[in-house]
Write a structure and sequence with these properties.
Number of strands: 16
Distance between the termini: 46 Å
Structural class: alpha+beta
Number of domains: 2
Strand order of the largest sheet: 1-5-6-11-10-9-7-8
Strand content: 15-25%
CATH architecture of the largest domain: 2-Layer Sandwich
Bound molecules: adenosine monophosphate
CATH superfamily of the largest domain: Bira Bifunctional Protein, Domain 2
Length: about 425
C-alpha cells in the first residue's frame, strides 16, 4: 500500500483516471448522438448559480435545498450554489436569453457535473455527472412519452439490462391541493407510525412521505389514498394519453402510484428508470433497484422563475451509476491499446528527427507510440512489445545521419531500411494490408 498522501480528494468526489475515461466517453457519445437525432441543441450553463434560483425553483422544503446544497458567499456578499441539478439553470437561461421568442419547443441538452451534499456511499456521490434533456414550450403528452422513450433508448444502446420504467402523475394546481389535504388527514391519523423525518415532512411537504424508504413508513403509505384516483379531468386525460403513447411504442412501464419525486416543480407526469440488479443472494430472490434516470413535466417552473406561462418536460441520467454497471459487465477488462507502430530512437540527433517524424505521422492519422525521453533501446523495445505493435521504427545515430529508418516487423523479426522521407507513405501502405 502506498503511503497516505498529504492531500486527498474531498469526500464523495472522484478522480476519473484514464482507465475509466472510456466508459464516460461511450456514454457521452451515445447520449449526444441520440440527442442530435432528436434535434436537441447543447447548452452549457455556469456550474454556480444564485442560491435563490435553486431554493425558489426546486422548493424550500425539498431535501436538495434543505440539506444538499454546496453554497458559498462571494466577496461581494452574494450567495451562490454549485448546481445540484440542471433544470433551474437551463430555465434561467431560457428566460434570460428570450428563448420564448424562438420557434417552440426549445429542446436543450446539457452534460456535466452536479453537486449534492449527500452521505457518500456506493453510487451516491457529492460530485457526479448528469446528462440532461429539457423540452420547453410544449405541453402535449406525446413529448412526455418521447422523453421517456429517448432515455430508454439510450440505456438500451448502452446494453443496460433489466430496465424498469416507473411512472405516475402527481396532478397540477387544480387537483393536487385537494389530494394533499386527503393525504395529510390520512397520514395524521397514522402519525405515530411514521419516522421522524416523515413527521416533519407531514407538516412541510406531505407528498414526500410517499417515497420514504423506511419500512414502517412504506407500511403506512401502502394504505394511503392514491393521487391517480383524484386527478382532475385535464390531468387524467394527459396521463392516459402518455400511457397510450408508451403502449403504442411497446415501451414497458409500471404504474407506481406513490412515485412523487423529490422536487416541488413537477406537474402531471413523473417517471424514473431503474436497473434491477439481482444480488449475490439470488437464491433468496433479493434484488435491488438502481435509479438511473428521473424526470417529469414541470409546467409551472418557467413562470415561477419569472418567465411566461410556458410548459416544459425534462429528465436527467446519472452517468456514474451507468459507468459502474458497464464496469461490472466488462469485468474491468482492459481495452488493448491500438497503436500499430512504435518509434524507437537512440541519440540526440535521432530524438530531433523523431520529434519531427511523429508530427508527420499525426498528420497522416497513423497512431505511433514513442518514448522520446528514454535513452535505452532495450527499454524502448520492451515498451513496444507491451503495446503489441505490429512495427517498430528504429532510428539511431547512423540512420539519422544517412536519412533512413529501419522498419522492424515485430512478428517475423524481419528488418528493412527505408528513406526517412518515404516512411510515412510506406507505413500507410503496410497498415492498409
Ligand atoms: P435526480 O436529479 O435526483 O432525479 O437524479 C437523476 C439521476 O442522477 C438518478 O437517477 C441517478 O442516476 C443520478 N444520481 C442522483 N443522485 C446521485 C448521487 N448522489 N450520486 C450519483 N448519482 C446520482
Amino acid at each position: 500500500m502506498s503511503k497516505k498522501s498529504k492531500f486527498q480528494r474531498p469526500a464523495g468526489m472522484h478522480d476519473v483516471l484514464s482507465g475509466n475515461q472510456r466508459y464516460f466517453q461511450k456514454i457521452y457519445n451515445i447520449c449526444k448522438n441520440i440527442a442530435d437525432f432528436y434535434r436537441f441543441q447543447e447548452i452549457a450553463t455556469p456550474i454556480l448559480e444564485s442560491t435563490e434560483l435553486f431554493s425558489k425553483g426546486i422548493g424550500m422544503t425539498t431535501d436538495i435545498v434543505q440539506k444538499q446544497m454546496f453554497t458559498l458567499r462571494t466577496k461581494g456578499g452574494d450567495y451562490l450554489t454549485l448546481r445540484p441539478e440542471f433544470t433551474p439553470g437551463v430555465i434561467r437561461a431560457y428566460i434570460e436569453h428570450g428563448m420564448q421568442n424562438l420557434p417552440q419547443p426549445v429542446k436543450l441538452y446539457s452534460l456535466g457535473p452536479v453537486f449534492r451534499y449527500e452521505h457518500p456511499q456506493a453510487g451516491r456521490y457529492r460530485q457526479f455527472n448528469q446528462f440532461n434533456l429539457e423540452v420547453i414550450g410544449e405541453g402535449n403528452p406525446v413529448i412526455d412519452a418521447q422523453i421517456i422513450q429517448i432515455f430508454y433508448t439510450i440505456l438500451k444502446e448502452l446494453k443496460i439490462k433489466n430496465l424498469l420504467v416507473e411512472i405516475n402523475s402527481i396532478g397540477d394546481n387544480q387537483c393536487r391541493p385537494y389530494y394533499k389535504k386527503l393525504l395529510t388527514n390520512y397520514l395524521k391519523s397514522r402519525e405515530s407510525a411514521l419516522c421522524s423525518d416523515c413527521r416533519r415532512r407531514l407538516r412541510e411537504n406531505p407528498l414526500r412521505v410517499l417515497d420514504c424508504k423506511e419500512d414502517k413508513c412504506q407500511r403506512v403509505v401502502s394504505q394511503a389514498p392514491q393521487i391517480i384516483d383524484h386527478l382532475c379531468e385535464e390531468c387524467h386525460r394527459h396521463f392516459k394519453s402518455v400511457l397510450e403513447f408508451l403502449d403504442e411504442i411497446d415501451l414497458p412501464y409500471h404504474l407506481n402510484p406513490y412515485l412523487v419525486r423529490g422536487l416541488d416543480y413537477y406537474t402531471k407526469t413523473v417517471f424514473e428508470i431503474f436497473s434491477i440488479e439481482k444480488e449475490k443472494t439470488e437464491a433468496e430472490g433479493v434484488s435491488s433497484k438502481i435509479a438511473l434516470v428521473a424526470g417529469g413535466r414541470y409546467n409551472n417552473l418557467v413562470k415561477l422563475l419569472g418567465g411566461e406561462d410556458i410548459p416544459a418536460v425534462g429528465a436527467a441520467l446519472g452517468v456514474e451509476r451507468i459507468v459502474n454497471l458497464l464496469k461490472v459487465k466488462s469485468g474491468e477488462a482492459k481495452e488493448k491499446e491500438v497503436y500499430p507502430v512504435f518509434l524507437a530512437q537512440l541519440g540526440n540527433l535521432a530524438k530531433r528527427k523523431g520529434l519531427k517524424l511523429l508530427e508527420d505521422f499525426r498528420k497522416a492519422k497513423i497512431l505511433v507510440a514513442e518514448a522520446l525521453g528514454r535513452d535505452s533501446l532495450k527499454a524502448q523495445l520492451k515498451t513496444a512489445d507491451k503495446l503489441g505493435v505490429k512495427y517498430t521504427l528504429l532510428l539511431g545515430q547512423k540512420e539519422s545521419l544517412e536519412g533512413v529508418v529501419i522498419i522492424r516487423d515485430m512478428k517475423t523479426g524481419k528488418q528493412e531500411i527505408v528513406k526517412l522521407g518515404k516512411i510515412v507513405k510506406e507505413m500507410k501502405r503496410r497498415l492498409k494490408k
